[in-house]
Amino acid sequence: MSTLLRHAADPLVVDLGYGASGVTTVELAHRLRAVHPRVRVLGLELDPERVAAARPLAEPPWLDFRQGGFELAGTAPIVVRAFNVLRQYAEEDVAGAWKLILGQVAPGGLLVEGTCDEIGRLSSWITLSADGPLSLTVSYHLRTLDRPSTVAERLPKSLIHHNVPGEPVHEFLSLLDSYWLAAAPHQAFGVRFRWLRMVEQVRARGWPVLDGPRRWRLGELTVPWHTVAPA
Ligand SMILES: C[S@@+](CC[C@H](N)C(=O)[O-])C[C@H]1O[C@@H](n2cnc3c(N)ncnc32)[C@H](O)[C@@H]1O
């Protein structure tokens, strides 16, 4: 992500459908700015009242709020974050929404479309380029993690109805559960150690887990889209 922002002619990031309050957009903006000082963040909302409510939080020109939807208000961001937005739509609307958004992003840009629980302890997202979905990430607050398949209820819309036996995403979550259980003795060394042991086992089983220990240690695990795409 930081490489993408660093090399972008215009490092604009859109937080699409930021919701009742703009505070998460503000937090996102400050975190990104710490990594890349030229970044600009734009919060877009369909709901004009939510735009009006967030405006006092704007810090133009680098952080702003406007009304807009999947057409991204005519902007061409390098990254679009859309969290807990498509879950309100029907599964058959997802491909069209992805297409509209990706038709607007700057060349080489990405869409991060995901879902999380209210306090951010369970999260999952799909990363997409103009060529389509690239990967699925599941992410957990490890100290409160019961078992990895609890993310099932927070899967992106395009996967949530496919978490049934015979579907790849179900196989994936079941596998994580069984290795998580098997790694229980490692919890004595800390939950992070247990998680890393689980990741090691998933990789040993031949799953092409992406990224590396720096991300895995955060309680994240990313796999290529083709390994979990609906059958
Ligand atoms: C549940 S809130 C999500 C808020 C925030 N992103 C979060 O994760 O907490 C969903 C928001 O998406 C907005 N929304 C729905 N469809 C949208 C669209 N096509 N474009 C922009 N915003 C949209 C709604 O107005 C609502 O405020």
Q: How would you describe this structure to a colleague?
A:
The protein is an alpha/beta fold and 231 residues long. 32% of the residues lie in helices and 22% in strands. An eight-stranded mixed sheet has the order 3-2-1-4-5-6-7-8, sandwiched between helices. α6 packs across α7 (191-204). The protein is globular and about 50 Å long. S-adenosylmethionine binds next to β2. S-adenosylmethionine binds at residues 16-19, 24, 44-47, 50, 69-70, 83-85, 88.
Features:
single chain; 231 residues; alpha/beta; eight-stranded mixed beta sheet; globular; binds S-adenosylmethionine
Task: Please report the total strand number as a whole number.
Answer: 8
Give every kind of bound small molecule, once each: S-adenosylmethionine
* Major sheet characteristics: 8 strands, mixed
Estimate percent helicity. Answer: 25-40%
Short overview:
The protein is an alpha/beta fold and 231 residues long.
Topology:
Elements: H1 2-7, E1 12-16, H2 23-35, E2 40-45, H3 48-54, E3 63-67, E4 79-83, H4 91-102, E5 110-116, E6 122-129, E7 132-140, H5 157-160, H6 168-182, H7 191-204, H8 213-216, E8 220-224
Parallel strand pairs: 1-2, 1-4, 2-3, 4-5
Antiparallel strand pairs: 5-6, 6-7, 7-8
Helix pairs in contact: 6-7
S-adenosylmethionine binds at residues 16-19, 24, 44-47, 50, 69-70, 83-85, 88.
